[in-house]
Amino acid sequence: MCISSLNLPCADITMHLLQHYPNLATISDSNGSIILNVLSKLPSHFQSGHKLGFWKTCIYHCVPVELESGNTIWNALQILVPSIKLIRDTKLRDVYAVKLVEFVSSQASTMNDNQFWQSFVSADIIFSATSSGIVELLTICFRFFPDLIWTHIPNEGYVAQIAIKNRQEKVFSLLCKMPIICKLLVLALDESQNTTSHLAARFAFQTKTISGAAFQMQRELQWFKEVEKLDHPLHKEVKNQDGKTAWQVFKQEHKELLEEGKNWIKDTSNSCMLVATLIATIAFAAAITVPGGNNQDKGIPIFLKDTTFMIFVVSDALALFSSMASLLVFLAILNARFAEEDFVVALPERLILGLASLFIAVVTTMVAFGAALSMLVKERVKWAPIPIALLACVPIALFTQLQLSLFIEMMKSTYGSHFSYIRK
Q1: At 153, is the secondary structure helix, strand, or coil?
Q2: Are 46 and 83 contained in the same domain?
Q3: Do 96 and 238 fall into the same domain?
């Protein structure tokens, strides 16, 4: 009952039972599993296993676990916003799961060597927790039983190798906090003479959702480069049983992804070039045929002294310059060589610059359009600029909504150093 209750959101009940009957912590069920066996296969019961969005993560960290009777604000929010209650329940389950691991580990410290081996090593607790990316469980187990970090699983390897195979960056980061141990672990070769760099070179089919094949390729390269930095320099030239170096394995494994990345960037660049060309054409035409026309005697624009006219001129000039800049950037992308290394920084940087220039062009074009229209009708309708400005915001808002998430993801992926915590 104690173990089966873990498969339900009843970790608090399990904890309550163990506090009254501590011997249950190390007793095996009919399958030979102890509580940690079950927990090591339940990443959803730990914070590291959640994929919450930005706002849900903020709420997760802010919401208190224990709600006192006087805490009326959070009590009211739970009633008014059901999602807050779900987030709190998730956090509560996570807290109890960590408490369970600590309690069971403390009880397991009294086991004899044979029991310990059967429960922790033979039962694959470390393997399951590592492949599932449950950092909390591994941290506690390594604290109580430091020797577990040297666990070697037949046909799978050491903890570092398992983490790399399953692309568990947080587990690998945990090992990197113990630099001497990590250095020794990454030096190990598996049964096929693969170095850790060979393992990192394999394509991760379970890669997290990333917009576009180009940025998935970027993430793959970033991961490979970070692991390669920790590996021994001589391992760069080491060949496995198939006679291939780590970089050769990477190129072979990512051949299809590289082609998909090329096509994705080319398609995106072509689409953006079309929009940039249209904006440049409109902006150039608007600069020649100014609103209201020119004075026939002097050739000076009729609305020259109007403030709205200056807004039109500045925004139209910015639209022309930024659209031309965007056009040139996307042209440079199409003429790139598209080598694997270009996907790390060079191509993403150009794409970011091109999209930023295009966004400025769209915004300034709408400002120029609004200013031109306001000049023509404001003499008859004084309030005309207000609805014109509001309507001009619609395409800007649509463009922002459709492209902002991609732009932010590109910025984070390129400049945010997704794997910087490994270096730390």
Answers
A1: strand
A2: yes
A3: yes
Query: Cα separation of 349 and 358, whole Å?
Result: 14
245 and 317 assigned to the same domain: no
Helices vs. strands in the chain: H and E counts, helices first? 19, 0
- pTM for the model stands at 0.76
**Single-letter residue type at 182:** C
Angle, in degrees to the nearest 10, between helices 82-108 and 135-144? 20
What phi, psi does 208 have (nearest 5°)? -60, 155
Question: Taking the chain, what is the end-to-end CA distance rounded to the nearest angstrom?
Answer: 43
Do 287 and 139 share a structural domain?
no
- CA distances from residue 366 to 65, 78, 356 in whole angstroms, order as listed: 49, 43, 16
Distance between CA atoms of 364 and 119, rounded to whole angstroms? 66
Where a domain ends, among 255, 272, 289? 255
pLDDT in tens, 81-125: 778 888 888 888 888 888 888 888 887 777 766 666 666 665 578
* Spatial separation of the C-alpha atoms in residues 375 and 288, rounded to whole Å: 17
**Claim to verify: residue 283 and residue 201 sit in the same structural domain:** no
CATH code at 333?
1.20.140
Do 319 and 249 sit in the same domain of this protein? no
* φ, ψ at 67 (rounded to 5°): -90, 115
- C-alpha 121/C-alpha 291 separation (Å) is 79
Give the list of residues 6+ apart from residue 213 with CB closer than 8 angstroms, or none: 257, 260, 261, 263, 264
pLDDT in tens, 306-347: 677 788 888 889 999 999 999 999 999 999 888 888 888 889
Within 187-306, residue ranges assigned H as helices are: 196-200, 213-230, 246-253, 255-288
Determine the structural domain holding residue 290 and report its residue range: 259-423
Task: Give the CA radius of gyration of the chain.
Answer: 30
Centroid of chain to Cα 363 = 28
Which of 186, 220, 255 terminates a domain? The answer is 255
**Cβ density class 270-299: b for 16+ within 10 Å, e for less:** eebbebbeebbebbeebeeebbeeeeeeee
